[in-house]
Amino acid sequence: VPLMDPAAETPQGQGADTFPTRVDGSRLRCSVPLADPVSEVLADDNLLIEILVRLPPKPSSLSRASAVSKRWGSILYDPQFRKSFLKHHRMPPLLGFFRGYAKSFIPAMDSPDRIPAARFSLPKSTRSYHTDEAYMGCRHGLSVLIDRNKHETVVWDPLTGKEHIVSFPPGFHSMRTNSAWHGAVLCVDAKDGHVHGDCFSSPFKLVLVSDGFSTQASCSLYDSASSVWGNIFSVTIANRISATSRSILVGNTLCWLICGGEVLVFDFEMQSLVVIKTPVENHVTNDRCFQLLRMADGGLGLAGLLDLNIHLWDRKSNCEGIGEWVLLRKTIPLDEMLPRRISYAFFVGYDEESNLVVLSTMIGNFTLQIDSMQIKHIVKRNQICHDTFHPYRNFYAAGSGFGRKGTDLAGTLNTPDILTCYLCQTT
Question: What CATH number was assigned to the domain covering residues 94-393?
Fold first, then answer.
């Protein structure tokens, strides 16, 4: 039963000591108090806020809660509540994946939390989002696209369509036209896990990388606070940077996979660009069967897929302080987890926040959480898809002031929903 405004449930002048009477005015023998503990708790704004802030950060949660009463809606629209909600949950939910390019979106959640592609806005300044090579993926709610014809990088918010246009650094304009371009963005305002909820309006760093003829990789760092590109750093590479594997953020470094299993690492604090060699024990030869990882301790990891078995390496410092790959004992047997008719799979995406990979097979795409080994069939088809899956995380609630307003996701919350959520997170 949907909750009414608790403040209006008890008529003025009545309380717990008021007894119901018969029509003739005589008092009933059994005393039944009109107020109950739930109503008393929900009548207290401070307690109600403590409960509402613990609602799951799913798209439908706040919109359903706002439909309970005007009082609840006014609380949910309050900017201070928004900040408290983001600070409590810290990590935004994985809404889904942009597949291949920015125009195709695959929801990651079930109904009523599925976000259709129509809810997102494309950048208006360029049409390069139609190609897989131009779309560089998402981080901190921002997407990056490279327009090599205009020599521009576009950083935009897919929920609002707002965009920043950043021209290439001067030294990149003269590079060969057949150079491959790679880019990555990160919000600089990372206090309390980006609880400000508006990374687009916050300062950001943009890294642009170019490689040409498999001999040299060059990169430069852009700081939006000063609107200035930094120096161009270069390093020799044996192969080209993988065109299908996007960057991952590990500490103060951004890492890209190089074909053959090497790793290009740019430290934006130390201002250095280096290459990490392939693990010695590696026997993987297909570039689509490598995937960079962010390990549980925040360090760099590498996954290699061979004969439907995933082998894992962790980057550790030895006794001399030199980094080296350590082959982990843990092996993930995909042949025991996937349907038997699947004989081949490769990596097409990775979510660095949850250590979740996206696999492509002959019957569609699966997500696999590396730590728990939970697997889910997210796209069903009868052929292998080579498109890259770019994970998109953000706080979104239709009609509640989070993200772009739209039609409400159906349903309202009742008392068991609210109290169960509160008790589960406080016990």
Answer: 2.120.10
